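Recall that a protein's primary structure is simply its ordered list of amino acids. Everything else, from secondary elements to tertiary packing, is in principle encoded there. The following example makes that idea concrete.
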Amino acid sequence: MSLIVQKFGGTSVANTERIFNVADIVTKTYAAGNDVVVVVSAQGDTTDEFIEKANAINPHASKREMDMLLTAGEQISASLLAMAIEKLGYPVVSLLGWQAGFQTPSAYGSARIKKVKADRIQKEIDKKNIVIVTGFQGINRYGDMTTLGRGGSDTSAVAIAATMHADLCQIYTDVDGVYTADPRKVPNAKKLNVISYDEMLELATLGAQVLNNRSVEMAKKYNIELEVISSLTRQPGTIVKEEAKMEKMLISGVAKDNDVARVSIIGVPDKPGLAFKIFSKLAAKKVNVDIILQSVGRDNTKDIAFTVPQNMLEEAKSAVDEYARVIGAQNVVYDPDVCKVSIVGAGMETHPGVAAEMFEALFEANINIQMISTSEIKVSVLLAREDADSAVTAIHNKFFGTND
């Protein structure tokens, strides 16, 4: 007998027909002799609709009250799925995140999981119940509901799998695996049968929306094998596992991230310590900084450019504007109309010239590169946002060809 954790995203439970489809998948897994824990997201666009309703009433609502509202979406999904499974004649119980033992810090909106005390889940399994858990949520020390941020249901599922030493964690979604690019934008994108944790983590962080990066990070830490699979086609998906047992591909995928803005501080005095002070101001406001480029000093000044998430641009402005004046910088330029396009592949470590091929593809497509960032298994470039899709296609064609 195996313990299998199955997570179903919002599109998988979007309506009555799809809920019964999920119930069929879950009950078939259970009928095969497995213990099953199911984690569900809110239906379809429910979370976005809740946010829209909240903004119509109070655009500045407290994060605590927003979490009280947003956790309702997963509760609806869990109870409806339990009802469907009941109707199919199987024993089932639905649990909220706090009932399932998810404990988080007191932060609201994007809480981290401190631990999962899975006693209740285990008791229900011992009663031979299928257990459905609301993803994306937990409880803090004040007894308040908290949410884990976007993609938090993936993290919930992996946390349960890690805590309970599950044999497999399946992430069901509306795509049938991890592709070399977004198949909705790149028709000749190829599905990967297997990908390493490190490659998947890079792709998830760089804009691929198949898996949440925190969930991949946790799966790697606890060596939980993941399968990304479609709830609609039920075809074999993509396995995410440790790379040591895998043959390294040169490139695993091309990812695009539009959630980027560029900040350029022009004419910073060329003195020691100023870069440190600028970035410490950003860190104090909890602004995540990604690609950083500093020019060679000229006329006793230098330019410093870096990228931040779109939703942190205002915080970045408040940190940078005042300090730029204090240190005597000539100007600060903000550009929200940019995107980051990246290639990822474990094989890049041992194959020189990969970056050159990427740059050649962009040159041939007449696309200008604004900034570049590299690591052992990735190369990222910052481009004008209008060039994003054509850049992904050009790069993908360079590495994977134009035919299926």
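DSSP finds eleven helices and 20 strands in the chain. The mean pLDDT is 91.
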